[in-house]
Amino acid sequence: GRAKTGEELKVQAEALNTLGWALGNSGVRLMLHQHAPELADDAREWRFMLAGTERRFMSVCLDTHWVYRAGLDVMTLLRECGSRLRGLHVRNSRGGVWMEDFGEGDIDYRAVARHLRSTGFTGYLSVELAWDRETPVTRPLEESLRISREYAEKVFGIASR
Predict the structure, then answer these.
(1) The domain that contains 112 carries what CATH number?
(2) 3-state SS track over 24-47
(3) Is 161 a member of any domain?
(4) Least packed by Cβ within 10 Å: which of 11, 63, 116, 138?
(5) Residue 13: how many CB atoms within 10 A of its CB?
(6) What is the residue range of 117's domain?
(7) What is the pLDDT of residues 80-139, one digit of tens each?
(8) How far is CA 115 from CA 32, 39, 97, in A?
(9) Conformation bin of residue 149: beta by default, left when phi > 0, alpha when psi is -120 to 50
(10) How far is residue 36's CA from residue 63's CA, in Å, rounded to a whole number?
């Protein structure tokens, strides 16, 4: 589709503020999440929403791999989220092709983890496994899930139950 106009982005930001306020009064926290369209044109829409909404009404859940696929720097956008960051979607690829598990690849998750530790991040971490047509599937899904959990535990310094 076409890019939103500046006026449309302003209306969207105002609507998100209103929604965030209403949800907050009901005990629910609004989190903005992005995929490729919001990151077009050097993340124009995403950055407009960060600048045009109030922190007290809206947090963010950054999808790191969509940032990577948009050709943007994951660490830059991660830092731009600041204290609004309440969630992170993680997956990885090799040569731009999604991997069958979450592990070492195109995105440096060790750097992401260091940043999260330095900011005292206590939000959600969602590991996403999705396969492209080109993804080589070489093992049962259960094994890929185990490998993904072990990698997340090691890199992010977390323990599962």
Answers:
(1) 3.20.20.150
(2) HHCCCCEEEECCCHHHHHHHHHHH
(3) no
(4) 138
(5) 19
(6) 6-156
(7) 999 999 999 999 999 999 999 999 999 999 999 999 999 999 999 999 999 999 999 999
(8) 20, 21, 25
(9) alpha
(10) 10
